[in-house]
Design brief:
Number of domains of chain B: 2
Strand order of the largest sheet of chain B: 2-3-4-1-5-6
CATH architecture of the largest domain in chain B: 3-Layer(aba) Sandwich
Distance between the termini of chain A: 32 Å
Largest interface: A-B, 62 and 74 residues
Shape of chain B: globular
Number of helices of chain B: 13
CATH class of the largest domain in chain B: Alpha Beta
Order of helices and strands of chain A: HHHHHHHHH
CATH superfamily of the largest domain in chain B: P-loop containing nucleotide triphosphate hydrolases
Helix content of chain B: 25-40%
Structural class of chain B: alpha/beta
Radius of gyration of chain B: 22 Å
Number of strands of chain B: 14
Oligomer: heterodimer
Chain lengths: ~230, ~450
């Protein structure tokens, strides 16, 4: 059960995010908000293989949720504050979590072959996202080099400067990386490819259909809750 | 300059002569992706295959199968043909992990072979190779050359290869172009004529002419690199390091080191050797306290030291020099760690040793690959640490700069530092007092 998402078609995974977004529009009162949030949380408990990343997503979404709740409270609508906060969590958290399960090559295959988006932009999009995932290795090297060169953080103020410096280094690395990768891509026929084929097909399984159905049902939970209450 | 279809050309020149720039011109990157002043024109016909100097630049997919498939996909080939080419190219370069292996788990040498596989898979009419074997052990380098030979022979492809260690390539090419330090074309001859008539002149230019003995390491003023503190041996026992690539789709663990024992003593240059992908870079990082071992011990243990404490003891030249650059000029880069550790440094003298005095005010990112590696070398020794760890320090160096780089390492060792270099360079291995062999 906990391997389901790792084996799910990228489009089905993206539907989870879209369904959560659409479902959040139906969150209008406390019962529908609690029902929707509970539904997604239970689904997460059943299928997520680990909790470190989902909890990190929850924390980040929680910042937005907290700010929206605070705004509602400051604007004289304290009863609506928890509803607004839960709506933000329902809107953002499921999509933020499932995006980590998307296989980039498979996503490119789906976008080009099933959705028939233009080949070249899709290939470029997938290659650029792949470079983003490689930033982890670059970041490790940048941090390692700075630490051994005495340029690591050594206090709160220097930690802020260090973060800024590392961010700038990563930005510079990303820009230089992009240029060199585009040279390498063009030299492998990308520059002149007016049409291209794809090395893998786009299988759709019963599991993918089931994921879409469950996500749709979860999106409908706040609607049902409002009808029942 | 004109290269006809089917010609096999080697492009030579000292470090910084513009060899990579010429290849970039041929792939059409100058004036588009790479900015600068450009005059003249370049015309290239046929399908291109290009292996860039920095091994990671060509990676476009998360798994090696899809990465190699990128070129055949661009040529709109049918799926069975794509995978036949992918499997053939991977076998040709000796990458045996299988199509699903993550590209993020490959070493520098393995990335070099992956880039070549990507170029071979398009079955190019023109194959451009920028130091394709510089980070490979002799066996893998030989298999890569054989793969290039087969591809070129099978298709009658044009070959243009840049490689400092020209010897093993000379019987594969039928023409040699030599660039001078100013980027001008100095010679356009056959390999036989190059060796028989131009050997000494090319040796003086710094080229690695076959038959010439390795240069004598430069005598470096020991005060420039003498350790500021007394060094002690670095000992690794039963060292295990797992590199983890974590995502929600799963955790990919690659065992980089498995039960390694190593000992580095003060006053001796140790060569860390082994096939590409064996874990040499990982071992250096573990010995220097740059990563936390999965199990086993490193003594003295430095991985908990704060940044400046570590910097005072350890100097490290990364395999990818750009990742270590912090400053806006070469001069500031060389002085930085000494400033952080409260030590004095004679930047001008050090820059002169490695022939970078004229580039002191240049941004490190604007240097050639070989020049960047020399700056990285200086950043590892300039603050006079007791442990100096060098990752492929001689890649991309001509004879003169090689002598300077090796001279710095030997001088540091001579003054009592622990010095280790991960390398495939047989001349460095010959000079080393110790050899640490890392098994794959």
């Amino acid at each position: 059960m906990r391997r389901v998402l790792a084996r799910t078609n990228p489009l089905a995974l993206m539907w989870i995010g879209v369904a959560a977004l659409l479902g959040s529009f139906a969150v209008r009162d406390l019962p529908s908000a609690v029902a929707a949030a509970t539904g997604w949380a239970l689904a997460g408990l059943l299928v997520l293989p680990s909790w470190r990343y989902p909890v990190a997503c929850l924390a980040l979404c929680g910042v937005s949720a907290g700010l929206v709740a605070y705004s509602a409270w400051r604007l004289g609508n304290p009863d609506h504050a928890p509803v607004a906060a839960l709506r933000i969590l329902v809107l953002a958290w499921p999509g933020a979590v499932v995006v980590a399960f998307v296989d980039l090559s498979d996503l490119g295959d789906e976008l080009a072959q099933r959705l028939h988006l233009p080949d070249r932009p899709v290939a470029a999009f997938v290659a650029s996202l792949q470079r983003v995932s490689g930033f982890g290795v670059t970041l490790q090297q940048v941090l390692r080099a700075r630490r051994v060169r005495g340029a690591g953080p050594h206090g709160p103020a220097s930690a802020v400067r260090h973060a800024g410096s590392v961010t700038f280094a990563m930005l510079a690395a990303a820009l230089r990386d992009a240029g060199r990768t585009s040279i390498a891509m063009d030299a492998r026929g990308f520059a002149t490819a007016t049409r291209r084929t794809w090395a893998q097909g786009v299988p759709w399984t019963v599991r993918d259909t089931a994921v879409v159905v469950v996500a749709t049902l979860l999106a409908l939970v706040p609607v049902v809750a409002r009808v029942l209450t | 300059m004109r290269v006809d279809p089917g010609e096999r050309v080697m492009l030579l020149g000292p470090s910084g002569a513009g060899k990579s720039t010429l290849l970039h011109a041929l792939v059409g990157a100058l004036g588009t992706t790479l900015s600068g002043d450009l005059t003249g024109t370049v015309e290239v016909g046929g399908v291109l295959g290009f292996v860039p100097q920095a091994p990671g630049d060509a990676v476009v997919a998360e798994r090696i199968g899809r990465d190699v498939a990128f070129g055949p996909e661009n040529r709109a080939l049918a799926r069975p043909e794509i995978w036949a080419r992918v499997d053939r190219a991977l076998a040709d370069v000796g990458l045996t992990y299988g199509r699903e292996h993550p590209t993020s788990a490959l070493s520098g040498g393995e990335l070099q072979r992956l880039a070549l596989a990507g170029a071979l898979a398009v079955e190019p009419d023109v194959l451009l190779l920028d130091e394709p074997t510089s980070m490979l052990d002799p066996d893998h380098a030989a298999s890569v050359r054989e793969a290039v030979r087969r591809t070129v022979a099978a298709r009658g492809a044009t070959l243009l290869v840049v490689e400092h260690r020209m010897g093993p390539w000379l019987d594969l090419v039928d023409r040699v172009l030599v660039l001078g330090r100013d980027g001008a074309l100095l010679a356009d001859v056959s390999p036989d004529v190059l060796v028989s008539d131009h050997g000494e002149a090319m040796g003086r230019l710094g080229l690695w002419m076959p038959g010439l003995p390795a240069p004598t390491p430069l005598e470096v003023d020991p005060r420039l690199v003498a350790p500021a503190s007394r060094a002690t041996s670095v000992v690794a026992q039963d060292l295990v390091v797992d590199l983890t690539s974590r995502s929600m789709r799963g955790v990919a663990r690659t065992r980089a080191l498995d039960g390694v024992h190593a000992r580095l003593d003060p006053g001796r240059l140790a060569a860390v050797t082994g096939p590409s992908g064996a874990g040499k870079s990982t071992l250096l990082a573990a010995l220097g306290g740059l990563l936390v071992p999965t199990s086993g011990t490193v003594s003295p243990s430095r991985h908990r030291l704060r940044s400046r404490e570590l910097a005072a003891q350890v100097g490290w030249a990364s395999q990818v020099p750009e990742h270590g650059f912090v400053a806006a000029t070469v001069r500031e880069e060389v002085a930085l760690t000494a400033g952080r550790t409260g030590r004095t440094v004679d930047v001008d003298a050090l820059l002169d040793v490695v022939s970078l005095g004229a580039l002191a005010s240049t941004h490190p990112f604007r240097l050639s690959g070989g020049e960047q590696r020399r700056v990285s070398m200086l950043t590892a020794v300039a603050h006079r640490p007791e442990v100096v760890l060098l990752d492929e320090p001689t890649v991309g160096q001509d004879r003169d700069t090689w002598a300077a780089v090796v001279g710095l390492a030997l001088a540091a060792a001579g003054e009592g530092a622990v010095v280790a270099a991960a390398t495939h360079d047989a001349d460095v291995v010959d000079l080393a007092a110790e050899r640490v062999e890392v098994a794959p």
